[in-house]
Amino acid sequence: MLGRIFTVGGLTLLSRLTGFARDILLAAVLGAGPVADAFFVALRLPNHFRVIFAEGAFNAAFVPAYARIRQQGGAVAAGLFADRVFTLLFASLTTLLVIALVFTPAVISLLAPGFAKDPGRFALAVELTRITFPYLPLISLVTLYGGILNALSRFATPAAAPILLNLSMMVTLAVAVLFPTPGHAAAWGVLIAGVLEFLLVGADAWRHGVLTAFRAPRWDGDVKRFFKALVPATIGSAGVQVAFFADTIIASFLSAGALSALYYADRLNQLPIGVIGIAAGTVVVPEMANRIAAGDEAGAARAQARIIELTLLLSIPCLVAFLLLPDLIMRALFVRGAFTAADAQAAGRTLAAYAIGLLPYVLIRSVTATFLARGNTATPAKAALTAVAVNVACKVALMGSLAQVGLALATSIGAWLNLGLVVWLAIRAGYLRFDPELRSVVGRLAAAGIALAAVLALAHRPVERLFAASSSLHSVATLAALAAIGALVYGGIVMALFGRQWLAMLRARKR
After folding, report:
1. pLDDT of 283 higher than 90
2. What integer pLDDT is reported at residue 46 of this predicted model?
3. At residue 182, does pLDDT exceed 80?
4. In a domain? residue 228
5. Can you give the three-state secondary structure of 86-122, one letter per residue?
């Protein structure tokens, strides 16, 4: 299981890094004018549908159902279930695509009402949306095949697929002169990426004999149970997106630079969330679902506990760095060109506020796995919606005094509330137990994190003075040196505390 997590996490990290390169090229080619505005609106529509339905709700409902049916009824029954879901999914997505293409102007009027004052920008947004929207049905089918492969413990191809979006857009932007506008180049890059991702994951599904086929839909018990899980999961995913919309809407009323500070801080905060939290959740849900379907409740609980331990192990250094060195991180990564030291300071404060909620964000996928593996998507959705309501209320309350930092802090408050509710509900249902080994590991990791924080706090100023003469690379050199010191200290403490335990685990895996 650890190897699978590192596979998914490594590929997710590569996806995030290529995403940074794509954003740099996108900014250089599109700039911040009307063409860029039109493209980002065209990208937002299928992207939010993707986050709400395809990657979030669908995976939460489908993967445990498929794993349970395959475990209890065999490959034939699981294939029949997948075929029926595929047929229903294809029909609904085709209908949605036709509606979206016909009524695109009305949709753009709702999504970007300000474009009505600029007919040229409005027409361009409509045109680009009609290019990008087919990405949604393609990526939804990618999610279906990725869910099947994840249930079979095949994680590499689904995790690698998002890299194709970044590469495809970079290629089309590099030859933007061949398109009517750079926005058209970026939009076609999105659509081409959807085709490539579908071919990549579909080919892997075919190679493993699980490629779906059209099958007459039948409202049997398995399909009913799937949709019973899908509906609350969709509502929960939509609620989380409401909070992101609230950030954009509220930040637009703040002073200039607030949106940029939120964007750059969130990009960094999302790195450990995606690489660690989402990777762990992707692996643990099918692992627990298979064990629960086989009647191995104790094994499922052990798998979840070990995932929580690994998540904490990898995320604590990020938490310490984001809390203690946010300004330095922002200066080292972004201060060049139009991005000033003042911008870095504003983004650094925002990053520190986001970091307060980093642990619940990376842990939530592993904790909710105990519900999702049992096909219960309603309980996590209720917790998420409650947290979103508090999150949005806190944003409104804090935006006046703390500006965009208040928005990030409200997000962290919502994350802690969400995690607390899920843990409480899981314990009450008997799905989660903090065994003595887990409590011991958490205590030792907390000690390692405190030691790391103390070392970085003491070393920060001396290291800065050491590189004071190198004005051009001062921040980069300081951050690199502190990262090396932190890695040695944290790695040494962890090896001292867990070395024998890790060696025993590795020997067991080898046997």
Report:
1. no
2. 77
3. yes
4. no
5. HHHHHHHHHHHHHHHHHCHHHHHHHHCHHHHHCHHHH
10 Å Cβ neighbour count for 357? 25
pLDDT at 316: 92
Residues 6+ apart with CB under 8 A from 460: 324, 325, 328, 482
How far is residue 252's CA from residue 305's CA, in Å, rounded to a whole number?
Answer: 42
Task: Determine contact, residues 84/217, Cβ cutoff 8 Å.
Answer: yes
Query: 177 with 256, same domain?
Result: no
Whether 179 and 272 share a structural domain: no
Degrees to nearest 5, angle at CA 130 with 127 and 131: 95
Please check whether residue 354 is in contact with residue 265, taking contact to mean a CB–CB distance below 8 angstroms. Answer: yes
Residues 356 and 423 in one domain: yes
Is the same domain home to 414 and 444?
no
- Flag whether 333 is in a domain: yes
Over the Cα atoms of the chain, what is R_g?
23
Residue 71: exposure state from Cβ atoms within 10 A (0-12, 13-18, ≥19): middle
pLDDT (0 to 100) of residue 374: 82
Residue 329 and residue 403 in one domain: yes
Q: Of the candidates 188, 218, 248, which is a domain's last residue?
A: 218
Helix, strand, coil % (nearest 5) of the chain?
85, 0, 15
A 10 A CB-CB count for 360 gives 22
Q: Which residue matches tokens 């870095």?
A: 344
Give me the domain span that covers residue 294: 236-433
What would the mean pLDDT of 114-122 be, rounded to a whole number?
Answer: 74
**How many angstroms from the chain centroid is the CA of residue 187?**
22
Distance CA 183, CA 170 (A): 12
One domain for residues 428 and 443: no
CA 233 to chain centre: 16
Pinpoint the alpha helices (H) of 356-473.
358-372, 378-402, 404-429, 436-466
- CA angle (44 as vertex; 28, 58 as ends), nearest 5: 130
Same domain, 17 and 124: yes
Q: What is the pLDDT of residue 509?
A: 44
Question: Per the structure block, which two tokens stand in for 240?
Answer: 């989380």
User: Is the confidence at residue 88, as pLDDT, over 80?
Assistant: yes
| Coil, helix or strand at residue 398 | helix
Rounded to whole angstroms, what are the CA distances from 12 to 113, 271, 483? 35, 9, 21
6 near 153, Cβ under 8 Å?
A: no
| CA neighbor of 375 nearest in space, from 60, 75, 151, 77 | 60
What total of structural domains would you count in the chain?
A: 3
